[in-house]
Specification:
Elements: H1 2-30, H2 32-39, H3 42-55, E1 60-62, H4 64-67, H5 73-76, E2 85-89, E3 99-106, E4 110-116, E5 128-131, E6 134-136
Antiparallel strand pairs: 1-2, 2-3, 3-4, 4-6, 5-6
Amino acid sequence: MKALSIIALVLLLCVAAYFYSGYKPVWQFDHLEQNARKAITASEVQVWATNLLAYYTNETSVKLSELGTNFPPQLRGLAPKLGPHVFIHVPDDTNWPPYIQLYWGSGFLGTHGIEVGPTNFVSGRGQRAWQSGVYFY
């Protein structure tokens, strides 16, 4: 009887660990905006993004490994199994400033992210403003 209880407990813990490891990225994804606001300020994200925009003048996707330490560490842990992915947008229209799109997601969950540009950048998606030039979507 005691061995059966121990086996049942071990199996229950294994099932719980399995569900926890599967649900954690979904929870992080669902709370991305809330956790980002706690981890970093919009100004810090904007300073980082505008410095990066000065370096990259062509539209491109950048891997985190390429950025190395030139990426806010507070953003790395928001949903690490789902991103972040960094895309630098440089519009052909000179009336639109360049901006950076940081996004997390998957084919199943979709994407959530942050669009960051200079203070005169206005997101074309009509998303939630964090401050001038920084938007959640």
